[in-house]
Specification:
The protein is built from two helices and three strands, in the order βαβαβ. The chain is α+β, with helices and mostly antiparallel strands. The chain has one domain. The protein has a three-stranded mixed beta sheet.
């Protein structure tokens, strides 16, 4: 599955979690909003961590999830 992810790095930095980010939105390859697959309040350290979160909720392998940051 391919997803486009929009990340907010500024909020994490202001919260003292520099180098991390929060997910603002997540859409699939058809433009469908899939933000519900992640916790927008979580500070993630990598796109791989987000992919693992999505994988758990969709019962897919994390390696099958491709995230493109926009």
């Amino acid at each position: 599955m391919n997803y486009t992810i929009h990340c907010d790095k500024e909020t994490s930095t202001r919260a003292g979690a520099g180098g991390m980010f929060q997910v603002v939105s997540l859409t699939d390859e058809n433009g469908v909003d899939c933000t519900h697959l992640v916790d927008v309040g979580t500070h993630y350290s990598s796109l791989d961590q987000v992919a693992r979160t999505i994988a758990k909720k969709t019962r897919k392998k994390a390696s099958d999830i491709e995230l493109v940051e926009e």
